[in-house]
Amino acid sequence: MTRLVELEATGPRTLDPSDIDDEKGDVAVCQCGLSDTFPFCDGSHRRTEDEEDGETYVYEDGERAVVDRVVTERKAEDEDEDENENENEDENENEDESGGERED
Ligand code: FES
């Protein structure tokens, strides 16, 4: 199971002693992305308990939907860049420290 989550934060949230739950004595950080009190767990993760492996979910306005995996154009561009970087690395491995071709 996978979940698409939209977050608006652009930086970290530092925890301090006031974040400790008075009743439980701990701090529970949300890892499902559905908490209304993010970054703290509020129990919303229970909604994910019946998610199926191999599916991608979106939770919106209290509703859950299965969506196709999102593949971006950027991903394809990254793969092309990775191929070019690998080609450059191969070329560099064949050069010795003086910049000439290495004889194997
Ligand atoms: S882990 Fe996200 S609400 Fe509990």
UniProtKB/TrEMBL annotation:
Residues 17-51 form the Iron-binding zinc finger CDGSH type domain. GO terms for cellular component: cytoplasm. Residues 61-77 have a biased composition (Basic and acidic residues). It holds the Pfam family zf-CDGSH. One of its GO terms (molecular function) is 2 iron, 2 sulfur cluster binding. InterPro entries: FeS-contain_CDGSH-typ (IPR018967), MitoNEET_CISD (IPR042216). Gene3D superfamilies: CDGSH iron-sulfur domain, mitoNEET-type. It comes from the Archaea. Residues 1-23, 41-104 are annotated as: Disordered. Residues 50-60, 78-98 have a biased composition (Acidic residues). Keywords: 2Fe-2S, Iron, Iron-sulfur, Metal-binding. This is Fe-S protein. The lineage of its organism: Archaea, Methanobacteriati, Methanobacteriota, Stenosarchaea group, Halobacteria.
